[in-house]
Structures are given as C-alpha cells and as structure tokens.
C-alpha cells in the first residue's frame, strides 16, 4: 500500500467521526467561513455565520434518519469565503478540481482546500484525470460552462518548481503566463510578490505619481514616488493620479510591471528595450549589486566640503528632503536645511566603487523639469588630506528634453575620461586627462543649486558592460538615425547649447560601418587634438 | 558518472546496509527520462555546467547557457520530456540539471503571448464568458 493509499484510507475512516461534529474532514476545523466542509446543508443561508455545533449536529441527525437528501451537488466546491469581496485573500477565479475528486468528494473528501485563499488542489498523486474548471458564481453554475480539460505539464509540477520556473520571467511574461488560467495566475502573483519584496528597498515608498507628457511623446512618462508611505512599495498600494479602471492596485503583478517601467525610465534602459532586449529592466531591477551612490557632498564655491546627508537608512522607506536609493536620487521641496551660500554650490553624489585598473563605463541620467543646467558629471578625487576635487567635470545641459543623458568612459591605462552627451540625434564626445596620483577616484554626479531645490528632479547612474556600451554610443533616443558625432576639444568645459563661439568638429557617421570604425575615429580625433 | 550530484542517490547509497548491492531504486522516474539524466551526469563529470546566475545575464537561452553541449541537451528533447526532466531533477535533487531544465522551460515562455503560452503548455482556451469575467475582474491585464 502506498503512502497515498494509507492516508486515503485513514481519511475515509475518520470522516464519520468528523461528520458527527460537523468538522471539515480535510483540516478538521469548525469554522464555516474559513474552511470547506463536506457537510453541505440544503439551505446554506442557515450557516452564514460562525458555526453552531449544536444546530449542525441536530441537523446532521435529522438528515441521517430521513431519506438522504444532500444539497444539490454544486459543480464547484469552494470555501464559504470564496468570492467575498472584503476578504483580501480570496480569489474570485475559477478553480480546478479533478473529475475523480468531484465524484469521490461526497464520500472521501478528497479535495483539499486552502482556507482563506480558496485554492483547491487535488492530491499530488491524484493522477492524470480530466480536470474540471468552473466557479462558484451563480451565473457560471451552468453545465454548459464547465469544461473538461487535459492536465497540462506545469500542472503536474509541485508549486515550488513552478515558482522556480516563473522566477526567471519578467513582469510582462509573468502576466501573459498568469492569464492562461487561474492556477498559473495565482503562481505568478506569488512570484511577483517575492520579487517586489526583494527589491522594493531600492526605491522610496509610494504612492506612485505619474507625470504624463503623452501628447507630445508617449514615452515621456515620469514616474515619481512621493515617499510619504511608511512602508516600501507593496500591493495593495495607494495610487494617485491613476485611473482606477486601468490599474488594479491590489495585485503584485501590476506593481511589478510598474516597477520595471520605472526602472526602465529612471536608469535609461529604454534604448536597450527598443533594440530588442526587452527584459533588460527586469534584470536590472533584480540586480542586488547595482552601482550605488554612496557619499553626498555639499561643495561650495570655496571648495570646502560638507558631508550633508547621513548614510542611507534602508529601514526608513519614507523620503528625506533628497533621497538616495541604490543608484538614483530624488528631490522634494523640503530642503530648507541646505545652506544657500551661492548658486555655484553643487550637491555631489559619489558612487560606491572606486575606479580601479581597466576601463569603466557608466550612464548618467538627469531628469529635471526647470533647470537648463541641471548639474554636472565627472570623476571626483578623494584626497588623503580630506580634500574632494573634481578631477574632470562636465557641465550638463538640457535642451528641449526633460532629461539629459551622459555616458562616461574612464580608461586607467590612458589616464583619460571620455564623455558622451546625447543631445537629440547628436552624441557630443569630450575627452579629459586624469591625474592618477591624486587620491582615490570615483565617478560622481552633481545637482546644481537650482536643480537640488526643484521637486521631482531625478539623477541616476548605472554601470555598463561592453555590449551595453556599444549599443549606447550608437543609438539615439528616438532611434531615428545614426547619431551625429561632435568631438569637443579637451579643456573646453563649458557647453552652451545655444550660441557660443566654439565650432565643434562634427562628422556624419552615416557612412561608417561598424563600431570599430567609430571607435577608431574618436581615438584618431582625440590624438589629433593633443 | 557523478553519483554525488544526485542527493537522492548519494543519501541512498550512504544508508545502504548491504554494501555489496550498489543498486539504488529510482521509482518515480521513467526509464527514458532516467537515461537522459544519466547522460547529463556523465557529461557533467567531464564538463561541469557553469552556474546559472540570477538575475539572468541575457534574455536568451543561448546567451545564458554558453556551453554548447548543455544547450543541445535540452534543445533536443520535446516538451513532455523536458517537464519530466524537471520533475526527475527535483526528485533526485540534481541542482544543475534542475537549473538548466527550469531555465529552458522559462525561455519557452519568454516573449510569448498568452495564446502562444497556452499552446506550449496545452492549456485550453477560455470561453467567451470566462474571458469577459476576467476582463471585468482584472482590467489591468488588458490595459497599460
């Protein structure tokens, strides 16, 4: 006798005893609300509240003596809490029950049910019987809507394995998989919840606010986390400015998708998605070892340093005046504590990894609503005597866009920094020499004084592998054409977008083939200007 | 072969009282699937599978599993056998095979619509009434 058969036999022997006290013969509880019971009275309304043992036992005895008149077998066995709207754990979805279990249910109670969630699952050794899918909704208690389906492969796997498979999927794929049937949707929800909880500390708390600019460009959606909730992003969440018809805030799957879209925007991953790597935001979101901002420095015009912000407090989901989470910074208006010395003050954020031997590449993104000069990027030197100095600094400009994107490439062999500023369909390339002997070097980005006091402004930084970098320097934000390259001579640190006396050298790269030609051109031009 | 790779086999062999008999019964794995498992274990002894990291390094199976033999190993099997391999690897506690097979199943689902996933997994279509019900209850699935 197999283990399953032993358990089945034991269960059948126990049914009579449990039936006497109207206990569920699956979990032995007596709460009607929390459990499914084989004992189904003719009039279920009699038992809408908490279980009344005496009344049920009386009814049970009456039924035993009278001709057996069980309630009309419902096509679906569910918890009494099933479909109750106020029960946050209930799932108004159809459930799947093995046909054999339905036939045996009256006698064996073979169907197992999980209390509040209402998920019904047959024994794992139930066998490859046809499955019945239907609901407890009255309008669906119709034989025509029941359908018998063949068991599908994922169904035969334990839930833990299915979750393991689903964990590799991004939000969009999870959603598509979940929508195939109810059981997979519940699995997908659980996986989404695990993923969100593992990464939500990298974002400020909600509610999520959306600033649309879809009239001019549907991609110009700014997600802003207000940071007023006392808990990290979770479902259900408070949403503002969202049409309730469009967004179901009670579920983890839409929240995961929302977080992936935020990640795509904040960390400038859209071009990778457009180039076919649609799971890039998902992979980046789940990366627990992102390049992060570590030190925030208020640097005034006299180059004296004030370490302004305390270390990041991951236990506090609420947003400070200026909040750093992983590799992005966000501003609110409540920054009166920043001493307004002069407009030349900068709020600098240094990353957490020093520059070592080799080539290092990052992408910085400024998303600023009002300031033409949102800030700067470059390499910060932390000297042994405590001085913090820009070893190389590029002032960032905003044009007609709300965001400015700059790629930085540091080469320790050539002691150089090269910046790639994306301006519409142009990538402006500039080179700087770096003095290697002056302290530890870090990538850094800074808000200008004006940007640091403007609500919703964001600043982000992320590392790039060589493959991502190759895509970055050959793309344009609108993917309209191959970017036009402008090489700015070294030493020209001020970039006035409109007007100015410089004549930047430009090259139409439309006729160039391959990345190697582009790289060679940049190197040749840099050498020509030395 | 690398018997210690299977925790089930390893534990069973450790607990055997009769040391002359080295057979370990694997009851829950079909013979055809077990042959594939053995094939995997034999090759693993020569060329261990590189760890599959999470999050994935690429959005394609070929980009994640760079070792050709392992790519071909799972690509040569049909879907039923693939799911059998997942079950067998789980039952026999062979983590590398489990990682590889689960990743392959995931990649089958990546970038697919619900309709395509239904075909892959042999899940029947929702009736119009069920779909209408789902649209009412979970509008977010259809929007945004």
From TrEMBL, chain A:
Span of domain F-box: 151-195
Top-rank taxon: Eukaryota
Name the record gives this protein: F-box domain-containing protein
Protein species of origin: Cyclotella cryptica
UniProtKB/TrEMBL annotation, chain B:
Keyword Repressor tagged: no
InterPro entries, alphabetized: SKP1, SKP1-like, SKP1-like_dim_sf, SKP1/BTB/POZ_sf, Skp1_comp_dimer
Domain (SKP1 component dimerisation) ranges: 95-141
Pfam families per UniProt: Skp1 (PF01466)
Gene3D superfamilies with a match to the protein in the record: Potassium Channel Kv1.1, Chain A
Pathway field: Protein modification; protein ubiquitination
Alphabetical UniProt keywords: Ubl conjugation pathway
Family named by the database record: Belongs to the SKP1 family.
PANTHER family to which the protein is assigned, alphabetical: SKP1
Protein name (database record): SKP1 component dimerisation domain-containing protein
UniProt organism field: Cyclotella cryptica
